[in-house]
Amino acid sequence: MTPEEIQRNLIESLKRNSLKVTRQRLAIIEVLSRNRSHPSAGKILKMVRRKVPSVSLSTVYYTLDLFKKDGSIKELEFCDMENRYESNVRHHLDLVCLGCGKIMDYVEQIPIPVERVEKKTGFAVNRIRYEYYGYCKNCRRSRVNKVK
Q1: Is there a contact between 90 and 114 (Cβ–Cβ < 8 Å)?
Q2: d(Cα 99, Cα 138) in Å, to the nearest integer?
């Protein structure tokens, strides 16, 4: 999806939930639609405050929670680092670097088609989360250089 399509979807989500399209929410939407780095709520707050200095962390969390419940964004929960948010809700792998914490999307055929799972088990899948953990190219280089 393009950033413009993501923005439209998130604005429609606010309207579906009878919420005002405020300056603060528009700034949050802009960050979610244009930033593909899977930012944390704290990072989103920092970026939004560049445009809207008065925005609060509770407004960011409330808006993220609304979009998450609506299915417009995904929250990636981790036990060893801050939860992250992404607007790419299509099925894909998240590549999580154990060195720097960077998360990248990798779009490829899903290992087991959802339709087959549903047909075989009757289980209605509504969310999928695939993550691969390892080291990105930069962290791999620095690890090799430290060994030398």
Answers
A1: no
A2: 9
Instruction: Give 3-34 pLDDT, tens digit per residue.
Output: 999 999 999 999 999 999 999 999 999 999 99
- What are the angstrom distances between the C-alpha of 117 and each of 15, 126, 132? 34, 12, 21
Q: How far apart are CA 108 and CA 106, in angstroms?
A: 6
Phi, psi of 39 (to 5 degrees): -70, 155
Whole-structure pTM value: 0.81
Q: Tokens 């720097």 belong to which residue?
A: 100
63 Cβ contact list (under 8 Å, min separation 6): 24, 25, 28
| Partners of 131 in the β-ladder | 94
Task: For each of the domains in the chain, give its residue range(s) and CATH number, in order of start.
Answer: 3-76 (1.10.10.10), 90-147 (3.30.1490.190)
